[in-house]
Amino acid sequence: MLGFFTEPYVRITLTIIVLVVIFIILSRNKRQKATDSLSILQERYEKGELTKEEYEEALKRRGK
């Protein structure tokens, strides 16, 4: 018996699963950072730390 991981389809399947999981984790982190920056911007505007013009300019730079 050569072992479980000697079959090529098993290694390929496991590699694909690992890559998909890594992709999901990385894309989730990017979305959280974007949401966090927007919420920080909104909080600063609500506290009066930013003027309306500064807030709108920051939104434009973010692409919103």
Automatic annotation (TrEMBL):
Q: What keywords are annotated for this sequence in UniProt? A: Membrane, Transmembrane, Transmembrane helix
Residue ranges occupied by any SHOCT domain in the UniProt entry: 36-61
Q: Which domain of life is it from?
A: Bacteria
What parts of the sequence cross the membrane?
12-29
Q: What is this protein called?
A: SHOCT domain-containing protein
